[in-house]
Amino acid sequence: MSTDSKKMKPWVAWMLFFVTVGVVFLLGMLAASITQRRAEITSIMNNKKVEITGIESRSEIFAENYPREYHTWLQTEDTTFQSEFHGSSVVDVLAERPEMVVLWAGYAFSKDYGTPRGHMHMIEDVWNTLRTGSPMTPDQGPQPATCWTCKSPDVPRMMDSIGVAEYYAGTWASLGHEIVNPVGCADCHEPEHMNLQISRPALVEGLANAGVDINKVSQQDMRSLACAQCHVEYYFQPDGNYLTFPWHNGLTMEGGEEYYDKVGHVDYVHALSKAPILKAQHPDYEIFLQGIHGQRGVSCADCHMPYISEGGVKYSDHHIISPLANINNTCQVCHRESEETLRESVYERQRKGAELRDMVEQELAAAHIEAKFAWDNGATEAQMADILQLLRQSQWRWDYAVASHGAPFHAPIEFQRLLSQSLDRAHKARFATSKVLAQLGHIGDVPMPDISTKAKAQAYIGLDMEKEEANKKVFLETVVPEWIKTAKENNRLISRR
Q1: Distance separating the N- and C-terminal Cα atoms of the chain
Q2: At 267, which helix (H) or strand (E)?
Q3: Which of 351, 438, 447, 449 is the most exposed place for a label (fewest CB within 10 A)?
């Protein structure tokens, strides 16, 4: 090679020069942005208008120091957003899918199950649901104090005040005048620097049982774990209603089932089939980990609490809502498709998931009804044992899938896997029941009740809904106002919206 050929051509040299200048410029911009952000944080921290210490459950106290975050948090009161599959307002799911009444026969969910609203409505929604009953005195049931755990920053305050185990051991009604503020600042942030924190011991204990040290997780992981304090599967231990996450064998459906089978846990015995049922709560975090976003390190906050830049200040949007309500700041941060394309992609997954879900609910409801028919016609416990186990397994897989908010999108493959297994076991239960009925002399179809509406399904399983609703009305008109009055007198509550 000649000496001339070894010389760099002028245009190449100039290109390298400009590329280098560009890289240096971008690095400088990044450094400046980081420096500016640190300066902003320092300025905010050094110019706090209100000094907050301890567990301050009244989010209004944080407003002066963090007005942007606070005012976006207030927007969780807004219920106007709607998508093809629900939105921010309450939808009566039992009215949409009355088979669920049959699936939950013998459990409070058969009385009332609505889609969740924003965090600002957390307290009033737990007051209003028929599942909490209508306790007229502090010592009445039906629910334990543990049911408050995910509803309010007053919970860690009470845990700190009376002890964790002591808190769990009480009744739901006994803390009605104390648990009054909806999910807010203190649930996820420590007051001095507003760093993310875990305020619920059940998560720390659950992670430890899964072999994870909460003190060693990354900041990005914390942006999901703050949500995982509540958006998980859990159960109450029989002795003292101690809140426990079934993560001892991993954060999967199979891991939870293995744990529950080992400890012999049963949420309720089905009122029709007598199957020992596991009621899934809302394993949102566990399902999310099975999907592509969770596997690629995307956090819950990345999509549900996107960053906003305002006046040179970058902060997280605390209007926690479906990313479909704000595609420009959520999906399109990473994906370059149009809003309509991205929205339709989500809907496609949800539609296909709903199609399989509806099949499962119809088959599983029929399986429970047929099992009842077998019992009514003289079936023995020995004949029914395998059927009841299949029903338990089928319903656990169905419930684990559908109880998770957003599962058809978060992890569509896992969602369909769970429902496919549920459908398989429901079919096997029905086939096994038909053989038992044949042994008992019954050949042919089992007569099916009319469960085409919520009211008909509830009447079929023996619920007195007029009485339930009348009792709740008295409770809301007499007990709840006293709770609010006492809370304000004790300076636990600033306002009720």
Answers
A1: 82
A2: none
A3: 447
Taking each helix axis from N to C terminus, what angle separates 381-402 and 412-439, rounded to the nearest 10 degrees? 160
The torsion angles phi and psi of 308, rounded to 5 degrees, stand at -125, 135
The candidate with the shortest Cα–Cα distance to 318, out of 3, 62, 132, is 62
CATH code (residue 250):
1.10.1130.10
pLDDT in tens, the chain (497 residues): 444 445 556 776 677 777 777 776 767 665 555 555 454 454 555 568 899 999 999 999 999 999 999 999 999 999 999 999 989 999 999 999 999 999 999 999 999 999 999 999 999 999 999 999 999 999 999 999 999 999 999 999 999 999 999 999 999 999 999 999 999 999 999 999 999 999 999 999 999 999 999 999 999 999 999 999 999 999 999 999 999 999 999 999 999 999 999 999 999 999 999 999 999 999 999 999 999 999 999 999 999 999 999 888 899 999 999 999 999 999 999 999 999 999 999 999 999 999 999 999 999 999 999 999 999 999 999 999 999 999 999 999 999 999 998 999 999 999 999 999 999 999 999 999 999 999 999 999 999 999 999 999 999 999 999 999 999 999 999 999 999 999 999 999 997 65
* Tokens matching residue 366: 């029929």
The Cα–Cα gap between 11 and 333 comes to 35
Domain coverage including residue 84: 59-337+462-489
Asked whether the beta carbons of 283 and 34 are under 8 A apart, the reply is no
pTM of the model: 0.90
183 belongs to a structural domain:
yes
CA proximity to 136, closest of 178, 179, 174, 182: 174
Output the CA–CA distances (angstroms, integers) from residue 352 to 82, 183, 324, in the order listed: 19, 33, 18
Contact 429, 391 (CB under 8 A): yes
Q: Is residue 229 part of a domain?
A: yes
Backbone phi and psi for residue 236, each to the nearest 5 degrees, phi listed first = -100, 125
Tell whether omega for the bond before 246 is within 30 degrees of 0, i.e. cis: no
Residue 21 covered by a domain: no
Assigned token pair, 254: 């199979």
Using DSSP bridges, classify how beta strands 313-316 and 307-310 pair: parallel, antiparallel or unpaired. antiparallel
Rg of the chain, C-alpha, whole Å: 27
Please list the helix, strand and coil fractions of the chain in percent, rounded to the nearest 5, in that order. Answer: 60, 5, 40
Quick check: 240 and 202 in contact, CB under 8 A? no
Q: What tokens were used for 4?
A: 């001339």
Number of Cα atoms under 13 Å in the Cβ half of residue 50: 14
Q: Coil, strand or helix: which one is 102? A: helix
Is 410 contained in some domain? no
The rounded distance, in Å, linking the Cα atoms of 471 and 133 is: 8
Is-contact 374 436, C-beta < 8 A? yes
Cα-based distances in Å from 251 to 154, 183, 207, 296:
28, 25, 9, 17
